[in-house]
Amino acid sequence: MATVTSRDGTTIVYDVAGDGAPVILVGGALSDRRSAAALAQVLARDLRVVTYDRRGRGDSGDTPPYAVDRETEDLAALIDEVGGQASVYGHSSGAALALAAAAAGVPVRRLIVFEPPYSVVARPVEPAHLVDDLRALMSAGRRGEVVEKFMTDAVGLPSQVVEQTRQSPAWPALEALAHTILYDLEILGDNRPPEAALARITIPTLVLGSSASPGWLQDAVAATAASIPGAEHRLLDGEFHGVAPEELAPVLVAFFQG
Fold first, then answer.
1. Which residues of 47-74 are buried (b: 16+ CB within 10 A; e: fewer)?
2. Are residues 150 and 38 in the same domain?
3. Does the reported pTM lie above 0.90?
4. Are residues 95 and 145 in the same domain?
5. Is there a cis peptide before residue 65, judged by omega within 30 degrees of 0?
């Protein structure tokens, strides 16, 4: 475990595994650096892999007020720490953060994003009051209800699946990350692909998705790639919103070593 200090003084904690060209993994909602451990272990056979706790998560600090720019500065600080340039892989809302960083000029060498959860025509309409409701629940200290509402209303998981998760040993860790759901929703803004920002990305970019994900996520993959000059997109055999590390890693290694 190592640390780097971001521009606003926040301490960001990270782990490094392997040797070779550096790649930073950016996790999505309700994840910390441990969430990417399995993928990092496979990638470390070929690359120098950095996993980190985004601000407000795990062992990293959290300096209020939250702003998306502070998270892009965290990523910039990590890149500077590992040599001044690195490839980046972002998953879900972490993909949206990685895209925002690349559009802002953070020195990303090559970029892969997996299913940024933007809204396109096939996605069910989310409740307009979702963010306000989550803020109210957080203010009342009802962290479990924040996670549950996010999983059902934003992610679209069936209530019985959420209830099973709530009874699992993983639930306390999810509750501990509840406040960061609001950070991820701020990154996503109005949930539409930020076409003007995406058009500013000029680095080699690959947008990935899973063949088992719902249509609205697959549409988001295509729409994201269409907005980035020269970007490729591809669907891999996988599961809902994910692909097994042993299947995903070779795709990442081939692109990052290109």
1. bbbbbbbbbbbbebbbeeebebebbbbb
2. no
3. yes
4. no
5. yes
